């Protein structure tokens, strides 16, 4: 891989051990994937924040680093709401370690917003064609597909190295030839709200790592595209998809229809609801919405569904701190029901979820991850059912 004289000097340790280590990791990745050079990035989104997944080894690694990130950088969800962790039932020992991780990242100049939906923040924009180093799989999918930016699915350490150097290796989804659709998926029905998460769950399994091109009857909006991409990244490993006439790349480029084609019908989506939901939802002791983190519109939708109701079970709504702080009335309205709007964290990366036995979710990704990562059974349903049956919502 070609390195500029300045990059060579960093590799040789002339800019200190942190940048030397960061360069070694970026170059090693570049060599594996046959990148020709490093390219500048506009921003980084760094996973590996929850103490639950990082442990002491991760904390030690971050704490040893020096210097400052070269581009705007943001963190993925942590293991707790940084202000309301006690209400979640997180232990003081965990909270102390989690704060140390946040402070270690902060000392590298990384903004303390912990979210997997950085694209909803006023303060952190990405635009068509930008090269990025983002790591959370649903954020990567959204950046590539809905924004038309370019990022590989970085690991937490490689995103951090890219942030410190301000560059990433030029391979994978940074290159035109890897962004061409490989599988056409026709969706032969109208879809509503949570149908997109279930469609993503089915399509991700079929696509695996390939780039699908959807042909749809309905025109999905940004939150539906987010749900579709998050589920495909979890049930498969899809990091980029296109929707004909909707996503920016298909509006600007004429892709050849891929030779391989499949059709998904409403009956397949209904079958998932039946097989994975069944009556399980009545056994839920908790419900959670906000995987990926809620947009203002999704918070508004939850507030409308909980209007005039109280919930019996634990109901958690996850969003970024910036979105919660910018929408105080909606948050207040949701919390009047007894549900909690939590920031900086989520149902999958927080140890607080482990106390539940069965959670109702409206997300294909949470549905795929809760049993393995939290040992909590999951049922997927639309928001209304999650609130009413999973949360036990009833009129006041
Ligand atoms: Fe985000 Fe957590 Fe889901 S990081 S995508 S809310 S598993």
From TrEMBL:
UniProt keyword Lyase, yes or no: yes
| Record key words, sorted | Iron, Isoprene biosynthesis, Lyase
Its domain of life reads: Archaea
Q: Which reaction does it catalyse?
A: (R)-5-phosphomevalonate = (2E)-3-methyl-5-phosphooxypent-2-enoate + H2O
Q: What is its EC number?
A: 4.2.1.182
Q: What class of enzyme is it?
A: lyase
Chain ranges passing through the membrane? none
For molecular function, the Gene Ontology terms on record are: lyase activity
The record's section on CDD domains has: AcnX
- What does the function comment of this entry state? Component of a hydro-lyase that catalyzes the dehydration of mevalonate 5-phosphate (MVA5P) to form trans-anhydromevalonate 5-phosphate (tAHMP). Involved in the archaeal mevalonate (MVA) pathway, which provides fundamental precursors for isoprenoid biosynthesis, such as isopentenyl diphosphate (IPP) and dimethylallyl diphosphate (DMAPP).
Q: Which family is this protein grouped under?
A: Belongs to the AcnX type II large subunit family.
Q: What name has this protein been given in UniProt?
A: Phosphomevalonate dehydratase large subunit
């Amino acid at each position: 891989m070609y390195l500029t004289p300045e990059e060579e000097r960093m590799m040789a340790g002339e800019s200190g051990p942190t940048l030397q280590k960061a360069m070694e990791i970026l170059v090693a990745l570049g060599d594996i994937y046959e990148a020709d050079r490093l390219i500048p990035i506009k921003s980084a989104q760094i996973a590996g924040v929850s103490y639950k997944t990082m442990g002491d080894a991760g904390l030690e690694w971050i704490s040893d680093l020096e210097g400052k990130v070269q581009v705007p950088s943001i963190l993925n969800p942590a293991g707790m709401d940084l202000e309301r962790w006690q209400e979640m039932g997180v232990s003081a020992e965990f909270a102390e370690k989690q704060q140390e991780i946040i402070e270690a990242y902060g000392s590298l100049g990384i903004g303390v917003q912990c979210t997997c939906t950085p694209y909803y923040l006023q303060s952190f924009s990405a635009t068509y064609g930008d090269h990025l180093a983002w790591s959370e799989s649903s954020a990567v999918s959204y950046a590539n597909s809905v924004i038309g930016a370019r990022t590989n699915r970085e690991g937490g350490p490689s995103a951090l190295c890219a942030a410190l150097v301000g560059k990433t290796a030029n391979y994978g989804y940074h290159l035109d030839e890897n962004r061409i659709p490989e599988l056409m998926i026709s969706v032969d029905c109208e879809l509503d709200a949570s149908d997109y998460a279930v469609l993503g769950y089915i399509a991700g399994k079929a696509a695996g790592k390939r780039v699908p091109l959807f042909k749809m009857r309905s025109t999905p909006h940004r939150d539906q595209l987010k749900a579709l991409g998050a589920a495909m990244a979890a049930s498969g490993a899809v990091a980029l998809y296109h929707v004909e006439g909707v996503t920016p790349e298909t509006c600007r480029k004429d892709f050849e229809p891929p030779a391989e084609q499949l059709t998904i019908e409403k009956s397949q989506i209904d079958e998932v609801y039946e097989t994975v939901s069944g009556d399980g939802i009545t056994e839920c002791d908790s419900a959670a919405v906000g995987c990926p983190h809620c947009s203002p519109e999704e918070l508004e939708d939850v507030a409308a569904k909980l209007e005039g109701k109280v919930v019996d079970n634990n109901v958690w709504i996850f969003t970024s701190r910036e979105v919660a702080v910018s929408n105080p009335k909606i948050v207040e309205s949701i919390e009047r029901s007894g549900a909690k709007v939590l920031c900086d964290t989520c149902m999958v990366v927080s140890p607080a979820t482990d106390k539940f036995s069965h959670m109702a979710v409206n997300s294909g990704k949470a549905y795929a991850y809760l049993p393995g990562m939290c040992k909590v059974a999951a049922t997927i349903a639309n928001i209304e059912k999650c609130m009413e049956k999973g949360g036990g919502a009833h009129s006041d």
